[in-house]
């Protein structure tokens, strides 16, 4: 329905955000959308977890961890709260269906209400896959993501 989006932005701006001085936006795109719809609050872009320290280093010679060395295992890392909205079960099911499941190391990093359920499903669905589910400290994550 035409105009619904603009109406909702206007409604939220007047009803929810009128007396608020600062608004958190997860991306620059969202901040720009809020500004384009007339939000005059201080809008701060605070990413939902990305930091350059979690990116692979650039430069130097390839070390085989970029997928070019086909003799090595393939690592999949998912990071986030172990809850329904993160849908980690779909990742577990996808790895289970993969013909290369035996060559995959799956790490699901986080804590939450689905911890026991996801572990049970991984035990049942991933007998050929190396997997881990659980908490990793902030200091451990860059190493894990770069491995």
Automatic annotation (TrEMBL):
Pfam families: Glycos_transf_1. Residues 72-146 form the Glycosyl transferase family domain. The keyword Transferase applies. Keywords: Transferase. One of its GO terms (molecular function) is glycosyltransferase activity. This is CAZy families GT4 protein. It comes from uncultured Bifidobacterium sp.
